């Protein structure tokens, strides 16, 4: 498994200037996290409004196009506010070798491979 990450930034709503600033702040926080974890960022999705359908699109990107190994977001609530929906997709992704990392909760559903030049922080979560 490689250590490719796709960033997912989302806010509920906001004026254009405020939304851009909040999304940029989330992206920077995720970039910092990925740098600390030795994850190579391959892309980023920024969304304002509902996340309905976004998790499915991101799962397809990861599974069908082999676009990333980890989906990284600030909080699980950015992906879905429905816990069962989130867990179902997290399991589907994990079954296919893709992890979800949520920075606020300190969860990563799969272990991040350590590289000689990067020391991986041990993460809790669903991985066995």
Spatial strand arrangement across the major sheet: 2-1-3-4-5
Number of domains: 1
Name of the CATH homologous superfamily: Resolvase, N-terminal catalytic domain
User: What is the CATH architecture assignment?
Assistant: 3-Layer(aba) Sandwich
The percentage helix is 25-40%
CATH class: Alpha Beta
Per DSSP, the total helix count is 4
Series of secondary-structure elements, N-terminal to C-terminal: EHEHEHHEE
In total, the number of strands is 5
> Which sheet architecture does the biggest sheet show?
5 strands, mixed
Terminal Cα separation, in Å? 16 Å
Gyration radius, in Å: 14 Å
How confident overall, as mean pLDDT?
Answer: 83
SS-derived structural category: alpha/beta
Query: CATH topology, what is it called?
Result: Rossmann fold
What amount of the residues lies in strands? Answer: 15-25%
Shape: globular
């Amino acid at each position: 498994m490689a250590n490719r990450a796709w960033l997912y930034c989302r806010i509920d709503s906001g004026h254009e200037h405020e939304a851009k600033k909040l999304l940029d702040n989330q992206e920077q926080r995720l970039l910092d996290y990925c740098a600390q974890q030795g994850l190579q960022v391959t892309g980023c999705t920024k969304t304002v409004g509902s996340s309905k359908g976004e998790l499915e699109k991101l799962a397809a990107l990861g599974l069908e196009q082999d676009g990333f190994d980890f989906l990284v977001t600030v909080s699980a609530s950015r992906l879905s506010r429905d816990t069962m929906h989130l867990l179902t997709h997290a399991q589907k992704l994990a079954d296919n070798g893709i992890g979800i990392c949520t920075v606020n909760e300190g969860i990563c559903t799969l272990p991040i491979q350590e590289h000689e030049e990067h020391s991986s922080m041990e993460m809790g979560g669903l991985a066995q």
